[in-house]
Write a structure and sequence with these properties.
Distance between the termini: 51 Å
């Protein structure tokens, strides 16, 4: 009887572990959540306030006219971090979001924004 109780507890623990793993793997990419939360045309300040709630790092990268804001999620390791890029342009005196995206290949965003990032914030 005691053996069955122990097996039942082990089975329950394994089922809970599998359930937790499934839930973790079902989390949408931060880009999906960002696109749901940040409509095109929203002000840059509003977008920053919304995305900073979940991002562990935000880096503005100004261009000549536009501003790209990079928001980093998940891992703090440079090669594993997921990035959401919010692009804003001036419209009637305020910067407004015109695109929300990412790079599928981490080397692409690292190359494109290497002069803008604070590398000391990433873990080795």
């Amino acid at each position: 009887m005691e053996h069955r109780t122990h097996l039942a507890k082990v089975d329950l623990a394994l089922m809970l572990l599998v359930l937790l793993l499934l839930l973790a793997s079902c989390q949408p990419h931060p880009l999906e959540r960002a696109r749901e939360q940040i409509p095109i045309g929203i002000t840059r300040e509003e977008a920053i306030a919304i995305l900073n709630q979940e991002a562990w790092y935000h880096q503005p990268c100004p261009n000549r006219i536009t501003i790209d804001d990079l928001f980093f999620y998940t891992s703090r390791r440079f090669k594993k971090a997921q990035v959401v890029i919010v692009r804003s342009e001036p419209v009637e005196g305020a910067y407004r979001v015109y695109d929300t995206g990412t790079f599928d290949e981490p080397n692409a965003w690292r190359a494109a924004y290497r002069d803008c990032l604070q590398m000391d914030l990433f873990e080795p």
